[in-house]
Amino acid sequence: MKNKFMILLLCASFMMPSTVSADILDYEGTINAYKQDNKTAQIFEIDNGSGKSVTAVAKTDTVSVSAKAAYIRSNPGKNGKKLKKVYLGTKVERVAVCDNGWSKVTYEKEGKDGTEKVIGYIPTKQINDSDQVTEAKGTYVALKDSDILDYPGKKDGEVVGEVLQDDEVKRLVTVNEIWSQIYYTKENGKRGIGYIPTSVIEDTASVKQRAKETKIAKVDGEEAGVIHKSKGNGVFAEAVDGVTASRDQAVDGVKVGTPIAVSSDATLKPLGTFKITHYCPCSICCGPWANGITSTGVTATTNRTIAVDPSQIPYGSKVVINGQVYVAEDCGGAIKKNCIDIYVATHQEGEDKGVYYTDVYLLQE
């Protein structure tokens, strides 16, 4: 979640680096749903690709991929053969849920060579039944410079490119209306797909109309109009540009913790100087499917939860930052070495606290 936008705030999704999971019925949830509806569940056994049998229950719903990318495999397990690589927003039909964390899906797409159909399995945590990806094709103009991320969320999204003011971009879809999926050119010259905030682009028709009105104004001897930045359409769109609600405004679902100061006789191990950023539970920070659950499975809590690079600071570690004790409970695709993201209640609070560098210590107990 570190880039030029990060001068404001590095927000995080509370999940694994490449996947933002969300509330979707798993095996147990599906079984309970059948019981509540007084219906009989159709249950069957499937080989997971390693010679072991897993139990599956029939479940029919339309879902979409909520990971950067995922593989549909021949069996419900990592040893299953890769059949198809699908990307964020791809819609598939789910037909069953396995008790080992996988779902059986059907992928179908019309192409120049006919209909492509793939039936296989995908991790349940990489799909979601909330339709937040909407097709929105068109040509747009960048209203200002913007980094391109490989995922629509500042914590998990890593910088893969950049658009400059007045650049034309081809948009494919919007994610929760907050992010726009666009084409960009990779360093190797090939075309890639990335994400920029919807608030930093405007459709070419509007730009041309604005330019026409400005020209007319100049001819009439009046002061030409000024092109103002777009505000976007999503509930968190203005947060991209630092326009947010007051820090005193309540945020539903935020678990608030009590600050804990390190004791004077504590044994501390210096970890070095770290870049400190902050994230909150908004769509800009956490991605469209954030549910408040950290990568370790606990609920993110202010004054406690921090996102770390677990290869550097193991989960569960107690870390001291400016005299306060935090717990390493989260991670993110953009949280790299010597970088810590502190969870806060609101976007404005994160912006106010900003980005800074300080010495960090490991609390030894």
Can you give a write-up of this model?
- The structure is a single chain.
- This protein has 365 residues and is mainly β.
- It is built from four helices and 23 strands.
- Strands 1, 2, 5, 6, 7 and 8 form a six-stranded antiparallel sheet that branches.
- The longest helix has 16 residues, at 204-219.
- 41% of the residues are buried.
Count of runs of 4 or more consecutive helical residues: 4
Compute the average pLDDT.
Answer: 82
Radius of gyration: 23 Å
Largest beta-sheet characterization: 6 strands, antiparallel
Molecular shape: globular
Q: Percent of residues in beta strands?
A: 35-45%
Helix share of residues? 10-25%
Series of H and E elements: HEEEEEEEEEEEEEEEHEEHEEEEEHE
Distance between the termini: 31 Å
Derived from helix and strand composition plus strand pairing, the structural class reads mainly beta
**Low-confidence region ranges:** 1-22, 222-251
The assembly state of the depicted protein chains is single chain
Number of E-type strands: 23
